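Progress narrative, Year 2. Work on AcrR family transcriptional regulator from Micromonospora echinospora advanced from sequence curation to structure prediction during this period.
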Amino acid sequence: MTTGPAAATRPRNRRQVIVESAGQVFSERGYHGASMEEIAAAVGISAPALYRHFPNKYALFAACANVMVDNLVEVIDEWPSDAALSDVLLALTRVTVAHRASGGLYRWEARYLGREDRRLLRTKFDRVVGRVTETVRREYPLPDERLRAVAALGVIGSVTMHHTSIAQRRIEDLVLRSAMRVAATDPTTAAGTARLVELPAQPVPRTRRAQILAAAVPLFARDGFATVTNAQIAQAVGLAPSALYRHYPGKVDILVAACLQAAELLAQAVDRSLQRASDPRQAVVALAAAYVAYCFEHNALNSVAEAEVAGLPADVRRPLILAQREHIAVWEQQLRAVRPDLDRRQARLLVHAGFGVAVEAGRALRWQDSPGHRDAVTALVTGALTR
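Result:
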């Protein structure tokens, strides 16, 4: 037990320090991959001391998941109803950048929250979206103002999903400009682009191994990899749990196979789309259309690949990270051909902004697939990238 002078140095905001450190650990390791001992070590305290502030890992995780949105709501409430959109979005951007290391928890890990905690989190985000929507409607009276507001927030939230190193003020400037372009984009301007994309079909699961993979992916997407059991996967295929091991050594091997399949399908979609582009600007639109189509067509597979890669062992994660970097490099090259004002890091940040638009706008549309929805999201992704 610490006594004397050391005890006097204990920070008054110890709970806040714990939540911030824990948020980073949860973001890097995932909810199930993180331990209270690991979090305590990151804070610089003992595990028993950590439990004095939070009774269990779930309580700490729930607090972490709400940090970002609570700060966003606070910022929204500080601005008058007639505030300029640029001022509101800049304030939201600054909060997000300040919580960059842990702010992405809401996107993938929130599925591990209980039903009531998820409902509360959604209510808070809806408040932010509603306020931004009102401002977008006032300044840019175009179709689908709520979708444009969500997409603009997707640009801002994207900074929590990567580690590209850029000076904070430059990040804020790039993100704000991108979010404003998205808010001002008419979603009908990309009408017809969905018809130009030829997606590779997801392989028909004819073999038992493929059937296991096809059954596991929606389970992983719905409940999270760590929660799903071999027995659930086996039941979905009509096998005894022990029979799974004839096809996959373990559950993690099923996850790796899913991630590799996602990377391959996306790479094929990009290659096919770029073959039809005659200039760099068309190439950027083609990349946006292909990525949007891929997200709609293979939503469960994509969400699993995005959410679960961080929790994989380093040796099996490496080829997946390499495939992701190669994909982003293609975007960087085409975007910089259109926008020579960008260096590589700036282009990479905007590429991630485009990904953020696709994910958040797709979620807002509940991934209800139609050419019109794909065209609208493609227009918004393109707006995030180009001038």
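The radius of gyration is 22 Å. The longest helix spans residues 115-139.
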